[in-house]
């Protein structure tokens, strides 16, 4: 969808009719529509709607979320993301309320859904810098730890009860070895790109030879990091970006959250650039009843840097192919050596004095 | 032919200075990031111009010592960047296959190469991380 599609009065009318029907309202009119920045994969729009009648009567501040022109492999479609948001909300996770899903391409040309617009800032570089030092940071890390524990309380056995009107078949069968599945997946992505990266292969081989056992397979968010949650002042308002959620090893989300590549330069604050690990771990352990094994987190931090490097190569390939010319995508390809240096450091090579693998 | 002055590298440096000092302050806040990305892209390109492929040649020399010698005609006929890509793919394949799992001199040599190559790449893309 382009800016033109929503600027087109006919499309706006179709959207209003869809909202009025979905909200069981007499009428709906658009007060404002504006594109939201952020998200290299989806397009998000801030939409203010006047709804006349029904349960949602009044002015509603919403976000309309639809696919961008190209998709990244393994990301969920909008209907699947909508189902995940419903389940997460029922499990008590702070998420924007997912209101209405439209899979009829006749309305805007692509599937989309509408959710409540939550207040706050997501941009990682702002979140890590703008929080005052001290207790506010620890409190946010604790809150994130307990939110993550709520996500990990969602299991293959419980998800259907959380959102009985949704299908979760797209999540597939839980794997017995999520770690080795990831190794296979990233190798496949590299092969599809036709790129031989010795450092990434070195890391992948280490992941293969050191794969941990898994106590419980749960829902994992798979993109739980600074930049993907909203902070209003000092308060967490919503966990965003559920397009990669899957069954997996819950510790993988902790490794992703703490990985250096997601600290936005605040490297001494190892929990997402906002605080030390202690408050984040403490709250997670208290809420989940699960003890965090630092060696397992280390494993998943290696995996995190490899995963981000592979995604960065994919993003650069989207630019290089000409299908989506973008300076941001192009430059993302050039961050791979930073990630490779960190992978080598985590494996005890180079200047970092860490554990030797 | 003698290169005309200012040469391409000098023009690029001046263009980047103009962007950062003159244009960037005029950009609205929501476009500032675009300006910074352009400046970063120009800086990478300038470093690549100045470096003239030295890092890639060093990587190639180290790789050639590490891997079984490629076909002599391959070496003479393939431009260095393509040969490097080819040999790195070879090394990547061997690492995946477990050829360097054993804790021996060959593994240590590969580990050294990985650091050399990563630092050579960073000297172009983000030299702060390899500052001595």
Topology summary:
The complex is a heterodimer of chains A (357) and B (132).
Chain A: H1 3-7, H2 9-22, E1 27-36, E2 42-52, E3 58-67, H3 78-90, E4 98-102, H4 105-108, E5 112-116, H5 124-130, H6 135-152, H7 159-162, H8 178-193, H9 198-209, E6 218-220, E7 229-232, E8 235-239, E9 246-248, H10 250-258, H11 277-288, H12 294-320, H13 327-332, H14 336-346
Antiparallel strand pairs in A: 1-2, 2-3, 3-5, 4-5, 6-9, 7-8
Chain B: H1 8-23, H2 32-51, H3 54-66, H4 72-77, H5 80-96, H6 105-125
Q: What can you see in these coordinates?
A:
The complex is a heterodimer of chains A (357) and B (132). Chain A is an alpha+beta fold. Chain A has two domains: 3-116, Phosphorylase Kinase, domain 1; 124-346, Aminoglycoside phosphotransferase (APH), C-terminal lobe (Aminoglycoside 3'-phosphotransferase, Chain: A, domain 2, Alpha-Beta Complex). Chain A is 44% helix and 16% strand. Chain A has a five-stranded antiparallel β-sheet with strand order 1-2-3-5-4, with helices on both faces. Chain A has a two-stranded antiparallel ribbon with strand order 6-9. Chain A has a two-stranded antiparallel sheet with strand order 7-8. In chain A, strand 2 and strand 3 form a beta hairpin. In chain A, helix 6 (135-152) packs parallel to helix 11. The relative contact order of chain A is 0.12. Chain B has 132 residues and is an all-alpha fold. Chain B folds into two domains: 8-51; 54-130, no CATH class. In chain B, helix 1 (8-23) runs antiparallel to helix 2 (32-51), helix 3 crosses helix 5 and helix 3 runs antiparallel to helix 6. The model of chain B has no long low-confidence stretch (mean pLDDT 92). Chain A binds chain B through residues 37, 187, 190, 195-202, 204-205, 209, 327-328, 330-331, 334-338, 340-341, 344, 349-350, and chain B through 30, 34, 37-38, 40-41, 44, 85, 88-93, 95-96, 98, 101, 110-111, 113-115, 117-119, 121-122, 125-126, 129.
């Amino acid at each position: 969808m382009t800016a033109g599609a929503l600027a087109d009065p006919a499309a706006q009318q179709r959207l209003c009719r869809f909202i009025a029907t979905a909200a069981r309202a007499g009428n709906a009119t658009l007060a404002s529509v504006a594109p939201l920045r952020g998200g290299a994969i989806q397009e998000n729009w801030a939409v203010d709607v006047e709804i006349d009648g029904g349960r949602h009567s009044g002015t509603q501040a919403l976000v309309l979320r639809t696919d961008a022109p190209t998709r990244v492999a393994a990301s969920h479609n909008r209907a699947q993301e909508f189902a995940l948001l419903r389940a997460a909300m029922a499990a008590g996770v702070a998420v924007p309320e997912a209101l209405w899903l439209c899979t009829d391409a006749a309305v805007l040309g692509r599937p989309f859904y509408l959710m409540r617009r939550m207040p706050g800032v997501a941009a990682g570089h702002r979140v890590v810098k703008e929080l005052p030092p001290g207790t506010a940071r620890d409190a946010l890390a604790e809150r994130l730890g307990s939110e993550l524990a709520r996500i990990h309380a969602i299991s293959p056995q419980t998800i259907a009860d959380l959102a009985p009107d949704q299908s979760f078949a797209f999540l597939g069968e839980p794997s017995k070895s999520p770690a080795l599945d990831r190794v296979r997946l990233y190798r496949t992505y590299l092969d599809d790109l036709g790129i031989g990266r010795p450092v990434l292969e070195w890391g992948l081989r280490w992941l293969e030879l050191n794969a941990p056992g898994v106590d419980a397979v749960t829902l994992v968010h798979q993109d739980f990091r600074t930049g993907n949650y909203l902070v209003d002042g000092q308060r967490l308002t919503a966990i965003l970006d559920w397009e990669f959620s899957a069954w997996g090893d819950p510790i993988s989300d902790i490794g992703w959250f703490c990985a250096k590549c997601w600290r936005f330069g605040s490297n001494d604050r190892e929990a997402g650039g906002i605080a030390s690990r202690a408050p984040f771990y403490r709250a997670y352990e208290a809420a989940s009843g699960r003890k965090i094994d630092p060696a397992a987190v280390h494993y998943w931090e290696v995996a995190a840097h490899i995963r981000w490097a592979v995604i960065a190569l994919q993003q650069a390939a989207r630019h290089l192919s000409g299908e989506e010319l973008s300076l941001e995508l192009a430059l993302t390809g050039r961050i791979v050596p930073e990630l490779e240096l960190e992978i080598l450091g985590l494996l005890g090579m180079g200047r970092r004095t860490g554990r030797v693998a | 032919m003698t290169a005309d002055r200012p040469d391409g590298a000098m023009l690029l440096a001046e263009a980047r200075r103009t962007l950062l000092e003159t244009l960037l302050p005029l950009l609205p806040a929501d476009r500032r990031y675009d300006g910074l990305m352009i400046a970063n892209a120009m800086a990478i390109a300038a470093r690549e111009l100045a470096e003239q492929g030295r890092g890639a040649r060093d990587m190639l020399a180290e790789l050639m010592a590490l891997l079984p010698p490629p076909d002599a005609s391959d070496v003479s006929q393939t431009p260095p960047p393509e040969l490097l890509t080819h040999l790195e793919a070879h090394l990547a394949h061997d690492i995946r296959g477990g050829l360097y799992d054993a804790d021996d001199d060959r593994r240590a040599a590969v580990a050294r190469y990985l650091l050399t190559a990563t630092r050579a790449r960073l000297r172009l893309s983000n030299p702060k991380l390899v500052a001595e």
